[in-house]
Input
Amino acid sequence: MTRLTTNDIQHIAAQLADYDTELTKKTGYSLRGIACRAAGVQESEFEKMSADLLAGIVPLTFGRGIIGGFCDTVASIVAHIGCPALVTQFADVAGLAEAFEKKADIIMLADDDRFVAIHPQSRQLADNAAATGRGFATGLSLMGGGLEKKNVLVIGCGPVGSAATQALVKLGSDVSIYDINLSRSDDLANRIRQSLDAKINIVKKLEQALTDHQFIVDATPAADIIPAEYITPDTYISAPGVPLGLNQEARSKVFDRLLHDPLQIGVATMTVDAMKFLLPEG
Ligand code: 2YC
Output
């Protein structure tokens, strides 16, 4: 799990409107639109519901401690998609108590291992890694014009890559997976076979897979894992991994056929996930 830095996130809040414009140009949908599709919720339903809810974001000092700007940035993303949000004045248990006292419907908090949104009333839990994988898989599908029966390569079989793989299998894609640690790709393939009764291909040589695939999810923390030589005018890349797995040459080659952000799509999707059980058909 990559730990973000203040530098990674400090400009996000001020650029959310521009990011919506960029996403709409690339995928046809805004940040809220992608999140709702990834969560399987009608955007109009979400819009009605979210305005009356309150999200409380609680800073946690455990482990490696607070990341400057993290909770404020999360709150700005949640508010941007239409759900009022506050950051508690206190951290840890005092912050959790404050969120309850301020009648937050959804409570969001992150330590070094997990970032979750909980909806105590319905006992629902939304996980950022799962939401991020699903959000970026959905974004890739929207950007690429639908991925049913298309070959898609997922690099990285951790929590984010696993969620992306599951989402892509559900979208009807033919998924190949690669992980530097072969046991992780084996485990993911087994989990997918058991849960979705679907067969996915395990890739052992990344270079060959990069040659064979035009749709790629990069869910790794590797900095330069997709070299420019493998990028063609038909290549689409959805990259939830931080840092971005493309160097400057590769970024200019893939041009606008690239989705990447350190928090936005994951936070927006987990927010919709957390409240979807409140919706009439939820
Ligand atoms: O400020 C705080 O409350 C800190 N406890 C937050 C720590 C978040 C650590 N996790 C990460 O940086 C990344 C994020 C993308 C979310 C998941 N992992």
Remarks:
- The chain is about 45% helix and 15% strand.
